[in-house]
Amino acid sequence: MQDTPIPEQNRLKFFPIMMYAIVMGMSGLTIMYQKAALWLAFPSLIGTALMGITTFLFLIVSTVYVTKFLRYPMAVKNEFAHPVRINFFAAVSISMLMLAIIYKEPYPSISAAFWYPATALHFYLTMHTIAFWINHNQELSHSNPAWFIPIVGNVLVPVAGVGFAPQGLLMYFFSSGIFFWMILFAILLNRIIFHHQLVVKFMPTMFILIAPPAVGFIAYIKMFESFDVFADILFNLAVFFTLLIGFMYKNFVKIKFFISWWAFVFPLAAMAIASMLMHHHSHDTFTLVFSYIMIAVTTLIIAIVIYQTLLHMQKGEICIQE
Question: The whole model's pTM is what?
Answer without folding.
Answer: 0.91
